[in-house]
Amino acid sequence: MFSTLKDRVGEVLLPGDEFSCETEDTISLTDRAKPDKVVCGPGLRWSGDRLMVCKSGVLRHKQPNVFWIDSQQRRYVPAKGETVIGIITTKSGDVFKVDFGGSEQASLSYLAFEGATKRNRPNVQVGDLVFAQFIVANKDMEPELACIDSSGRANGMGVFGGGGLLFKVSLGLVRRMLSPHSEVQSDLEQLFPCELVVGMNGRLWVKSSSIQQTLIIANLLQSCDTMTASQRRELFSRVKQGAL
Amino acid sequence: MKDTPLSNCERDFLLKAIEEKKRLDGRQTYDYRKIKITFGTDYGCCFVDLGKTRVMAQVSCELVAPKENRPNEGIMFFNIELSPMASPAFEQGRQSELSVKLNRQLERCLRNSKCIDTESLCVVSGEKVWQIRVDVHMLNHDGNLMDAASIAAITALCHFRRPDVAIQGDEVTVYSPEERDPIPLSIYHMPISVSFSFFQQGTYLLVDPCEREERVMDGLLMIAMNKHREICSIQSSGGIMLLKDQVMRCSKIASVKVSEITELISKALENDKKARKAGGRCGFAESIPQERITALKMDETPVEMMDVTERANDIIQKVEAPPQMVPSPVVPVPGVGQVGEGLQNTWGMEEEDEEEEEEENNDSGDKQEEKVTQMGEEKDKSRGGDVVEISDSEEEDVVILNPETPDKAPKNTGSSSHQRRAATAKKRQKK
């Protein structure tokens, strides 16, 4: 199966495509069948002894044996530990309801902010943006967010200040930006100084010294979503020449 | 499903940007988004793309008994459906306020303006008349549904052909399209609606608001007009107070826009007619390109690239550059990048531009070169509504109106052009 998978790396696969173990075809009586270990990433799932594709996209491979499906997805599914940008929708008692672009709203307790106590409530209004991480995120329970990490410190999370623009991109671009040694980020750094918050739910918040620059960055990031690396570099260099 | 709520940060940013006369997608105040009109295989099926807003209209006809008080006239029936496909805010089946409002506006725009000759739809007086039914479906909501719906409806009506009918004495024969060519409806004029959104209690005005702008607007003014400058319907919602000269200005802008759009519609209809005559493949199935990842295709976004700088010894405070084209990432062949192809060079569009730019390039000692654009100023040069046909498109009957070149903006903009003229005048004096 390893070899069949390897053959199809770079091809577009659809949900329902299967990979079955080769060992089914020929059973050797002498050697023990040694199944190759295949580590499945997102988009692939084991069902019984078969490997099923459950998302449409391109099959990718990383040494030594990791396979996953690269898909262009815009709909976010919450996962524990991921940091997202949410919008406060309601304030009910002790709990805020936050919209993060998922199927239901997450809850955020008012005590889950740095330095918040029962007497000292955080200054959060309906419609504010928050940067928080998921502490509970599975398909059976309502998702829960928190603006502090396990040690009780904010660590960059919390309510946003004023100004800036919030816009949406695909999840793929967000992951690329957050990966170490991200090219997108280094290209962006050379353009204008700006403040950028990247939420893994596909939402980006950017603030620059003027409205014009903020709009440029927002439009750039939304466009380079679907570009190859060389196209993107060309675009950024054109912007640099246009601006300077 | 509930729609994403609008955060305070977005609202503040949008309002501030509008105060500085900047829109999210780089348009000017009076610019429309790119309009694309395509037709389906049947007569009377029309798709309209207004930026990302997508609308489909389908016209059908049926022989029915006429209304009692009007035995000589045919019946027109309009229906707008807000499909949940268009936006998470639309629910299936429920008649929301917006749906009622759009239906009412479209009816007023098309029915009350008497754009269709209903008497020609009569077959046997008092017994059989044609009922023309226009169904408009919203496929994607990115703002300004009303304009897209009105363009789609009137284009579909112009495109539609009804079966031919022959009356011999008492016998009425309805011929199928194979027996006799179907005949078009008799349309007197084409009313098109133009929407204006107001912000900050009527201080700022934007034409063709996108979805974000619609959320923060105070009120909306809809003017339906035809190319003969007759106002068919005018409606203001949102409860804002509008001054008389504001409304007059809007109607002038509307007349310019309507004539441009009417030209676009006529061109699209002509192209479709030619394509059908030539026997070429046309219609819905052909207009969906094969083997392309169209889900990832993004149209060029005009973004103003020029930065706002203030130089100590410069009289001019703000100078803006023409929108920079962001290349469309459509990849014709896998592995081949398409950058800069087919784009219009917006630099040096007019002769005087180049002169100014040469002078500019000689400026030294400053890191940031300022390239002065003459786009706003050269309104004296009349540029007719250039309609660009994209030659590599597979859709033969598609005509695309490009509003991103700002010198196609209406010549009637008031204060902004004066400001820019003053700016250039000062610049020239300085030189």
Radius of gyration of chain A: 22 Å
Structural class of chain B: alpha+beta
Terminus-to-terminus distance of chain A: 54 Å
Q: What is the strand tally of chain A?
A: 16
What is the radius of gyration of chain B?
A: 24 Å
Sheet-strand content of chain A, in percent, reads 25-35%
What share of residues of chain B is helical? Answer: 25-40%
- H/E element string of chain A? HEEEEEEEEEEEEEEHHEEHH
| SS summary, helix count of chain B | 8
Chain pair sharing the greatest interface: A-B, 41 and 41 residues
Enumerate the spans of chain B where pLDDT stays under 50 for 5 or more consecutive residues: 289-296, 306-325, 327-332, 349-395, 404-431
The percent range for helix content of chain A is 10-25%
Number of strands of chain B: 18
Q: Given the structure, what is the number of helices of chain A? A: 5
Written overview of the protein:
The complex is a heterodimer of chains A (244) and B (431). The model of chain A has no long low-confidence stretch (mean pLDDT 85). Chain A is 20% helix and 30% strand. With 244 residues, chain A is an alpha+beta fold. Chain A has 5 helices and 16 strands. The longest helix of chain A has 15 residues, at 229-243. In chain A, strands 8-9-10-12-11 form a 5-stranded mixed barrel. In chain A, strands 1-6-7-3 form a 4-stranded mixed sheet, with no helix packed on it. Chain A has a 3-stranded antiparallel sheet with strand order 2-5-4, with no helix packed on it. Chain A starts with a helix and ends with a helix. In chain B, strands 1, 2, 3, 4, 5, 6, 17 and 18 form an 8-stranded mixed sheet that branches. Chain B has a 4-stranded antiparallel sheet with strand order 12-11-13-14. Chain B has 431 residues and is of the alpha+beta class. The chains are: A alpha+beta (244), B alpha+beta (431).
